Amino acid sequence: MRGGRDQSATELTGTHLRTDVVPIHMSTDDQTPAPELTDAEVDALHEVELGLEWLRRAHGKLLEFHHNTGHAMEHIAAAEEELRAAGHDDVADEIRDRYLPRGVIDEDRWSYDVLESFEADFLADLTAFEERTRSEVADGHRHVAERRQEREWKRGAEE
């Protein structure tokens, strides 16, 4: 076996035999041994990591929303010019006075403001939480559930 110690799922700790502890070993380029984690710890870390990954996906969609809104408003601005050139000043004025200066939320918050708030507050806070949780539970190691699965599949292929 590469890089490590016995992969046995059974370990003697104190006077109790624990069967829920499986050593976690990092990839071959990471020489720092990971702590031994219980199934519950691995599952909890996995949920935290998945939650953050889904927030990153949401961030991407929010960024897409910001870009799409900007492109839409560019078309509306072009429509103002074309309507004005076609002699429809009243409609063009409505675009200029009512729609172009307004935000997407509460009439004053533009899409960039929503994006920046999400990044600076919610996403930053949960990213820091995920990092603290990994540090506290798994000495900072990432993807412990995936590493466990990788190890089990490789072990199965060797048998």
Keywords:
159 residues; mainly alpha; two-stranded antiparallel sheet; 8% strand; elongated; disordered N terminus
Could you explain the architecture of this structure?
It is a single chain. The longest helix is centred in the middle third of the chain and has 47 residues, at 39-85. The chain has one domain (11-158). Helix 1 (39-85) runs antiparallel to helix 3 (111-138). It has four helices and four strands. With 159 residues, it is mainly alpha-helical. It has helices at residues 39-85, 89-99, 111-138, 144-158, and strands spanning 11-13, 16-18, 21-23, 36-38. Helices cover 64% and strands 8% of the residues. The N and C termini lie close together (12 Å). The radius of gyration is 26 Å and the shape is elongated. It has a two-stranded antiparallel sheet with strand order 1-2. The chain has a two-stranded antiparallel sheet with strand order 3-4. Strand 1 and strand 2 (16-18) form a beta hairpin.
The average pLDDT score comes to 84
Proportion of residues in β-strands: 5-15%
Specify the number of helices. 4
The percent of residues in helical segments reads 55-70%
Structural class: mainly alpha
Bulk shape: elongated
Detail the poorly predicted runs. Answer: 1-29
The major beta sheet can be summarized as: 2 strands, antiparallel
Number of self-contained structural domains: 1
In angstroms, what separates the terminal alpha carbons? 12 Å
* Topology as a string of helices (H) and strands (E): EEEEHHHH
How many E strands?
4
User: Radius of gyration in whole Å, from Cα?
Assistant: 26 Å
In which order are the strands of the major sheet placed? 1-2
